[in-house]
Amino acid sequence: EHRFIPTSQKSLLATPNRVLIDDCDDNIDSWEEASGIGILFPQPWNIARGKCSKRIDWLKFKLFDIEGLE
């Protein structure tokens, strides 16, 4: 079962088996500091901007890299 929970304090929901896909560097940093798995979605304003031309391919690559994710 997958759930989507909109919140500004995303790191409060982080656990070692939860994945956050976000386009904000700070959200990913705080999520990972709270033991979650973070994937930074490439956008022109973040550090993954070099991957912008193939965003979905980058996301698939990162998701595939997570062990045990179905």
3D architecture notes:
The model has no long low-confidence stretch (mean pLDDT 84). Strand 1, helix 1 and strand 2 form a beta-alpha-beta unit. This protein is α+β, with helices and mostly antiparallel strands. Helices cover 27% and strands 11% of the residues.
The biggest sheet, with number of strands, parallel, antiparallel or mixed sense and barrel status, is: 2 strands, parallel
Give the end-to-end Cα distance, rounded to a whole number of Å.
11 Å
Question: What is the count of DSSP helices, taking H or I runs of 4+ residues?
Answer: 2
Please state how the strands of the largest beta sheet are arranged side by side: 1-2
Q: pLDDT average, as an integer?
A: 84
Instruction: Give the amount of beta strand, in percent.
Output: 5-15%
Quickly give the structural class. Answer: alpha+beta
Essential attributes:
70 residues; alpha+beta; 2 helices; 11% strand; globular
Summarize it:
With 70 residues, the chain is an alpha+beta fold.
What are the SSEs and their pairings?
Elements: E1 19-22, H1 25-33, E2 37-40, H2 55-64
Parallel strand pairs: 1-2
